[in-house]
Design a protein that fits this description.
The chain has 2 domains: 1-109 and 260-361, Isopropylmalate Dehydrogenase (3-Layer(aba) Sandwich), CATH 3.40.718.10; 129-256, Isopropylmalate Dehydrogenase. The protein is 39% helix and 22% strand. The chain has helices at 14-32, 45-51, 57-64, 88-98, 122-125, 165-180, 196-212, 223-232, 244-255, 301-313, 318-333, 352-360, and strands at 4-10, 37-40, 68-73, 103-109, 129-135, 143-151, 154-160, 185-190, 217-222, 239-242, 265-272, 278-284. α1 packs parallel to α12 and α8 (223-232) runs parallel beside α9. The longest helix is centred in the first third of the chain and has 19 residues, at 14-32. The two termini are 29 Å apart. It binds 1,4-dihydronicotinamide adenine dinucleotide (NAI) and magnesium ion (MG). Magnesium ion binds next to α9. It holds the Pfam family Iso_dh. Belongs to the isocitrate and isopropylmalate dehydrogenases family. LeuB type 1 subfamily.
Amino acid sequence: TNPSLLILPGDGIGPEVMAEVRRIIGWYGEKRGMHFDVSEDLVGGAAYDAHGTPLTDATMEKAQNVDAVLLGAVGGPKYDVLDFSVKPERGLLRLRKEMDLFANLRPAQCFDALADFSSLKRDVVAGLDIMIVRELTSGIYFGEPRGIIQEGNERVGINTQRYTESEIERVARSAFELARRRGNKVCSMEKANVMESGVLWREVVTKIGETEYPDVELSHMYADAGAMQLCRWPKQFDVIVTDNLFGDLLSDAAAMLTGSLGMLPSASLGAPMANGRPKALYEPVHGSAPDIAGQAKANPIACILSFAMALRYSFDQGAEADRLEAAVETVLADGVRTADLMQNEGETPVSTSGMGDAVLA
Ligand code: NAI
Ligand code: MG
């Protein structure tokens, strides 16, 4: 049977960029004999308009039973007035929570042609290809006790960093599995020098590495030193695995090594399913961009690269993912630009489908 894919285009530019991915999926069927069972459904404001909820139970059920979900973006000014319980973002949050997607993957990839977009020197970032794996469902954002309490004559704000061994084990396994499909190196970041959770993190990651992934090179770094190294010489890394808080900071910083929001893909992975594939949701980092929605200006590359990640990490099609990324690289090297990638006055941007045409060609 063909691998199955649920497409949730969502709102704003979501459907516009997803249309280009659908053409690419069509190309794979026609030219490479790779067929997917594709179904499409509503999420976010689009689902609210049709059903009064940003994600129906039926769509949730479908998402739980496909090999991968590909999402465009949700939200828009039209929905800002809605009650919190039915806001478009809640659709996305429900997907992440019920699929138990504990590993958030944020690649920082810098195509040569766009190296001048970076705030760092060209030779530091050109050709960069690293992956940050952030633990997403535990740690200090969720730990108890939490709250603001009265203590004597002043108030105290409290959050608790808490990680169980099994929570560390599962995200470590995700990182090692990814490394095997990439450069075979994992760098784990914590602050074992000052945090108990960091001590346990380092111990557990080391154990998983030694017992289950002896073929993958493992190193450790304190997260503050890691932040410094990420700006100094990011190409030393392949996969970085870290907790929720440090991952939040490090992945945002790493994203900016590479430039435009319209270029950044992401994925969130959960536990392996019966067929061995991890539960997976792939989506561009950007939102629904209401300021350019409906104008055929959106850059579809972040969404296209999200599909490339699905090819590599859900469908075991690393060579085909390479092919798609190489097509993007070629198009950028040829100077094809959507408006968000323009650098010089007088350049003429291509439309969303113009970019899709170029990648397909
Ligand atoms: P945004 O990412 O939608 O837009 C920020 C800026 O980047 C805008 O100027 C936009 O035109 C530009 N941009 C974003 N993606 C682009 C692309 N593919 N091509 C060209 N330009 C692009 O973030 P913003 O404006 O903060 O949020 C807009 C809406 O999207 C809100 O309703 C927000 O809640 C939602 N949102 C949804 C996310 C998701 O679905 N995962 C993530 C972030 C925001
Ligand atoms: Mg953040």
